[in-house]
Amino acid sequence: MCRLFAVHSTRPVSIAGPLETLSTLSRHHRDGWGQATHLGGDGWSVLRETGPAFESGRYSRLAGEPTGLVSLTHLRLASVGKLDLNNNHPFTSNGWAFMHNGTLRNFDQHRARLEAEIAPQFRAGLQGSTDSERCFALFLTFLQGRKDVEISEAARALGRMSHLVASMTDAPEAPSKMNFITSNGKITLAARRGHTMVMRQDESSVSIASESLTPHRWREVPEDGLLAVDDTLAQHESSVLHWR
Q: What is the DSSP string of 1-26?
């Protein structure tokens, strides 16, 4: 089980507290870490390493720096795919960053069918061997590769991807676990299925994480919940099931 943390803010903010907590958690979730930061414009700045965050000098330096307006941080505990930078989250493509906490049931058994549903241009762009990257490619497929979309369009793509993956991989009494966070720098979406997910808001940011990372009060995202945040920090809450 991996760990996720995302912040969507109206100005650069310090995330030293959450990053320090994640560093402690990386003693267990030790199969690599990554961070994608959106600084405005069209691109993402991405840092990824295959070693644990608590042993990384690069990770330690992040705690002393204000984040960009949108930042996605991931700790990996590998379940599918070897330790390789190409298997580290967050993944980025077409202006989107994407990360996953969970595992698709019997992925090797269903991999060919899943890949057949991915548009050829995104299938050709696959670099790693994880189930997570294929979920991202399916999300981009349902978006038709577009970056600038309405929240409803992004929510529908995330919901359709989740439904398709679940319909292929769920086992009786053992559904696939799919907590996703994705962003294009203007909107950030989070979907919960199978693992914990919480959020909190202050005057300048909305944070989403796998678990409470600071002493502040965090609110649980409901199972099958889908949370979207826009660049005014307005929150749009629905269910993944609504968008399939």
A: --EEEEEEESS----HHHHHHHHHHT
Residue pLDDT, tens place only, 101-141: 999 999 999 999 999 999 999 999 999 999 999 999 999 99
CB neighbours (10 Å) of residue 111?
17
Q: Which CATH superfamily is domain 3-243 in?
A: Aminohydrolase, N-terminal nucleophile (Ntn) domain (3.60.20.10)
For the stretch 26-69, pLDDT in tens is 999 999 999 999 977 768 999 999 999 999 999 999 987 878 89
Q: What is the pLDDT of residue 243?
A: 84
Main-chain phi, psi angles of 236, to 5 degrees = -125, 115
CB 137 within 8 A of CB 145: no
Task: Give CA–CA dist 207/53, Å, rounded.
Answer: 20
Report the phi/psi class of residue 79: left, alpha or beta, with left for phi > 0 and alpha for psi in -120 to 50: alpha
The rounded distance, in Å, linking the Cα atoms of 228 and 236 is 5
Share of the chain above pLDDT 90, in %: 86
Location of structure tokens 């529908």: 156
